[in-house]
Automatic annotation (TrEMBL):
It comes from the Bacteria. It comes from Chryseobacterium herbae. Coiled coil: none annotated. Gene3D superfamilies: Zn-dependent exopeptidases. SMART domains: Ami_3 (SM00646). Residues 93-251 form the MurNAc-LAA domain. This is N-acetylmuramoyl-L-alanine amidase.
């Protein structure tokens, strides 16, 4: 009896496992038509064709791409919207993450203050940061504030502070390579097939990309406020060409990924979804070491870790690694620090945007020998303060009252070419 049961179970297991082996897993793609509903996106009225709204163009193109993909049995297509409605940005990314999608493609139209700007561009989530980058991030993230649920989830996310994103960005890095591949294919098709002008593939920090646990791109299909391009975007011909270019790129992308992984099971699946983690009240940084010595970026003493914030406090340089308000990321950062060799590292809480009550932050821009009046620093910055201590000259610049403002000031200096500065806490 027992033996027979065992046999039945065994043969059942065999059938079951062979179906698993022979049923090919579909490549799941989430297509995201940007904006929708009350969120019109970029829009402009023209005398001959009337109003062209981004939300309509993105939906039309998305549905065309989707219907082509649906004919291909290798693909499972999921839409964030098929109608004129507005799913929040987290609805969109949650859907993609929940579906364990292999790829996320968000379709948008561009607009610019400059009426002459035209062409296509594709964004991928990347670690690069610059001012223009942040402008785009803010523009695309503006919609976040329409939505109460998003506010709760991302209330602590501050798009004007690149520092607050580092942990999330690190997680995204592994998808960067694949996203760049698809972005390149899309832009190539726009140029070679449709004879359009491509502005390129860029790494940007966009909410809708950043929260995705899969390779993701955001395609700006053209400028709504450029008359010629807007007519193209609104036309049947334009929408068909654009969607074919995107479709072909997705097909080529899948082929390339299949070649890489040697099978039809493609990119590594994200972990099963865990219950949503709520953010902590404080930001946490990992204190790596305190030392009277100043180390510059890349100094061996920092053991190869990036994203280090040095903070001078009572004559000691304190080196902090990473910043996050999520407990799980904090733990990962601490482990990374310990693995790098900082055995005594520990997490320190910082209250976001806390004003110093007795004192201020300033930026130590230089220490060492006395600076010459025509040195780069003194030429570039006005009102640099100089102090001398034990024969060493300390030059500081600026006066702000929150750490966030100090980090911002430090980044401003970096864009002016003044690097390896230290934020200093001054007690008064
Ligand atoms: Zn848009």
């Amino acid at each position: 009896m027992h033996k027979q049961n065992f046999k039945i179970i065994l043969s059942f297991l065999l059938i079951f496992s062979s179906t698993l082996i022979f049923s090919q897993k579909k490549f799941t793609i989430v297509l995201d038509a940007g904006h929708g509903g009350s969120d019109h996106g970029a829009n402009r009225s023209y005398a001959d064709i009337g109003r062209v709204a981004e939300k309509d163009v993105t939906l039309a193109v998305t549905l065309k791409v989707g219907s082509m993909l649906e004919k291909n049995r290798d693909f499972k297509v999921i839409y964030t919207r098929k109608f004129d409605e507005y799913p929040s940005l987290s609805d969109r990314t949650n859907l993609a993450n929940r579906s364990k999608a292999d790829l996320f493609v968000s379709i948008h139209c561009n607009s610019s203050q400059r009426p002459t700007a035209y062409g296509t561009e594709t964004y991928v989530q990347g670690p690069n940061q610059n001012d223009e980058n942040l402008e785009v991030a803010k523009r695309e993230n503006d919609v976040i504030f329409l939505d109460e649920k998003d506010k709760q989830t991302f209330g602590s996310y501050n798009p004007s502070s690149p520092e607050s994103l580092i942990a999330l960005k690190l997680q995204q890095n592994k998808y960067l390579e694949s996203s760049l591949l698809l972005g390149g294919l899309v832009e190539d098709n726009f140029v070679n097939k449709d004879k359009r002008f491509s502005r390129g593939v860029f790494q940007k920090n966009l909410h809708v990309l950043r929260m995705n646990a899969m390779p993701s791109v955001l395609i700006e299909t053209g400028f709504i406020n450029h008359p010629e391009e807007s007519h193209y975007l609104a036309s049947e011909k334009g929408q068909s060409e654009i969607s074919e270019s995107i479709y072909n790129a997705i097909i080529d992308y899948k082929k390339a990924i299949d070649r890489k992984t040697g099978g039809s099971i493609s990119v590594k699946k994200p972990e099963p979804e865990k219950p949503a983690e709520s953010p902590l009240k404080n930001d946490f940084r990992i204190l790596l070491l305190s030392s009277p010595t100043k180390y510059n970026d890349g100094d061996p003493a920092l053991k190869g870790l990036n994203y280090i914030l040095p903070l001078k406090d009572n004559g000691q340089y304190k080196y902090y690694y990473g910043v996050t308000n999520m407990a799980s990321v904090k733990d990962i950062n601490l482990k990374t620090a310990k693995d790098a060799g900082f055995r005594n590292a520990y997490a320190v809480g910082f209250m976001p945007n806390q004003k110093l009550l007795s004192g201020y932050y300033t930026i130590e821009v230089y220490t060492g020998e006395k600076l010459n009046g025509n040195s780069f620093i003194l030429q570039t910055l006005k009102d640099v303060e100089r102090n001398k201590e034990n024969g060493v000259f300390y030059y500081t610049y600026g006066k702000v009252f929150t750490l966030e403002d100090a980090v911002k000031l430090q980044k401003d200096l970096e864009t002016k070419g003044i690097k390896n500065t230290i934020i200093q806490k001054v007690f008064k």
